[in-house]
Amino acid sequence: MPVFPITNHFYEMIKRTYILFGWFFLCFYLFNLFADIDYALLSLLSIISSFLILMILHIFTQVFHLLTSIMAIQKFLIFFFPEIESVVILRPNCTNYLIKFAYTIFGIKETVFIFTYLSRSYDFRNVYIIVFWTLNLFLIACSVLYIPIMISIKKFSHLPMARINQPQKYIFWQTMIILLFKIVSLPSAYTCWFYGLPPIWIVFFLITADIIITPLMIQTSYLYCNRRNVDAMFSSFKMGKFLRVIFDVKKERKAKVGPLRTGTLA
């Protein structure tokens, strides 16, 4: 799987995530506003919109975790079994199809869960909890695959083949931050379960934490891998330019028309 389509997708995902965060807080504010003045329908629409936004953000997070896991497996196989590189690496078109397929599968999963949760189907609720923990354990296991890679790179750091390019380093630090966060969250989940919190509410708590932490993990790893660019950015920081970069707003430049100056030889 090529690295660039993945990192580019993460960039697009971050932009959409912040836009959805803004809409979520707006819907939540409208819910409180309409609830105070007894607009039941508008209040209901606001809370439904907030819930749908959270579901979309959760789908974003799951796709991010899946792509990160696949990248870790791919890097491990290529590093220790370079002869299968041509088989493991997908073409950019296949990568885009894989991303769309992942969104479709997770979207269907969340939609089915909503309807079964509202119908109080406890069987699927248990299946949902099992799938959630399976995906999290799969993510942790894939993240651990980077450890033998880094040990080998450190051992043979004098060889050119052992050097990691910038996009790979970016993916690596994302994975390590995810691993650290998951290791910290597991004891917290166990503590909640020990004190009698229902498993489905523990899952909701971890999902909320993932939604909040995931964009921070992506940006933290990017900033760590581009410290020189970050220093240059803060040395000439302008809020307007910063927002244009974040939301990919192109600034139109007006061409200046003037007389053509020609030099004469004396």
Mean of all residue-level pLDDT scores: 76
User: What does the radius of gyration come to?
Assistant: 23 Å
- Structural shape: globular
CATH architecture field: Up-down Bundle
How much helical structure, as a percent, in the residues? Answer: over 70%
Write the CATH fold name.
Answer: Rhopdopsin 7-helix transmembrane proteins
CATH class: Mainly Alpha
InterPro entries: 7TM_GPCR_serpentine_rcpt_Srz
Transmembrane segments: 17-34, 41-60, 66-90, 97-118, 130-149, 170-190, 196-218
Protein name: Serpentine Receptor, class Z
Keywords: Membrane, Transmembrane, Transmembrane helix
Task: Summarize this structure briefly.
The protein has 266 residues and is mostly helical.
Short key terms for the protein model shown above:
266 residues, mainly alpha, 0% strand, globular, Serpentine Receptor, class Z
How would you describe the overall organization of this protein?
- The chain contains ten helices and no strands.
- By secondary structure, the protein is an all-alpha fold.
- The chain has a single domain (3-246), classed as Rhopdopsin 7-helix transmembrane proteins (Up-down Bundle), CATH 1.20.1070.
- Helix 1 packs antiparallel against helix 2 (40-80), helix 4 (92-118) runs antiparallel to helix 5 and helix 7 (166-194) packs antiparallel against helix 8.
Secondary-structure map with pairings?
Elements: H1 3-36, H2 40-80, H3 85-88, H4 92-118, H5 122-144, H6 146-155, H7 166-194, H8 199-225, H9 227-235, H10 239-246
